[in-house]
Every structure is written in C-alpha cells, then in structure tokens.
Amino acid sequence: MALSPARPSPRIPLRRLACLTPAAVLLTLTAGCAPAGRPGGYTPRVRELTVTMVPLLVKEAQTVYPFLAGAFARGGVLDGKEVYGFSPSTLVAVEGDTIHFTLVNPEDDAHTFVLPDLAVALPGQQVTRATYIARRAGIYSIICNVPTHMPMMSGQLVVLAPGAVSN
C-alpha cells in the first residue's frame, strides 16, 4: 500500500498573525514544517516588542466605580488582590528570533515579567529592557509572580515553527 504524499504546511505571512485567534495560531503551530535550509525559508530576526503593565481592577478605582467597594472589602472576591494585565497579553515570534523587550511599568506597584528562562523585576514607574531568544516553537506562559497579582496577571508568548510563516 502506497502512502499518500504529505501536504505542504500552510505558510502565513508574519504580518497577518496578529489577526489570528489563539486557536488558529495553535493550528498553525501544529502544521508540518518546511525542511531546514529550504530556499525561501524563514530567516530568524530581531523583534522589538513593547509590553505595558496596566491596571484593570485596582482598589484605587473604587472612587470611580463604587460597585468595586464590595469586591475589595474584607471577604470580597478581590480582598487583598488587585488585577493587573500585560498589554498586549499575547506576543508572537518565530523559533530562532531574538526578542528585545521594552517593559513599561507606569504604576507605583512593582511587577515581574516571567517566561521560561527569563525573570525580570519591574520596579514602579520605570522602563526595563530585556532580551530573550525564542529557542523552540510552542506556547509559553508569561506571568507576574507577585503573589497578589496571581493568577490574573498573565499572558502568552506564541513561538511559531519557521515553516509556518514566510518572510
């Protein structure tokens, strides 16, 4: 019995990835990869990504949104916690890319930016820079490991296989 030839992997221009849902990105990640060294293959590049720490639900907002008073009160769902976020919270790179992060923390509260093999302290009201190499395709969690910000302050770095994109 002869095997049918493998279908070529979909090649999506990197500029279009911002429009994809996480599920579509995952489908792209799991698609077959182009052979190494293939003419017209992906060439790793340096990416400049800026991520800002943003307050979503913080106790200072009670004066603007009185309905939050109960949530932040003793025994409330946000008692002792605040909800911050990374903006953007989903970042995309390709395996082999070098990412230069500019991490902006305009708030008074300290945060962290933690990926596998990278942990960066983010003091309040400062801009911090960090470099990361996307070594393997996959979806990696980004967290702030300040206990009162967990598990709400999180995001993901989606690292695509080189065969999934075209230059």
Highlighted features:
39% strand, mainly beta, four-stranded mixed beta sheet, disordered N terminus, 2 helices
Q: Please, could you describe this protein's structure?
A:
With 167 residues, the protein is mainly beta. The chain has a domain at 46-161: Immunoglobulin-like, CATH 2.60.40. It is built from two helices and eleven strands. The strands form four sheets. It has a four-stranded mixed beta sheet, with no helix packed on it. The longest helix has 9 residues, at 22-30. Mean pLDDT is 82; it is low at 1-12, 14-21 and 23-39.
Secondary-structure map:
Layout lengths: L11 E2 L8 H9 L15 E12 L10 H5 L10 E5 L2 E5 L3 E8 L5 E5 L2 E5 L3 E8 L4 E6 L10 E7 L4 E2 L1
Parallel strand pairs: 1-11, 2-5, 4-10
Antiparallel strand pairs: 2-3, 5-8, 6-7, 9-10
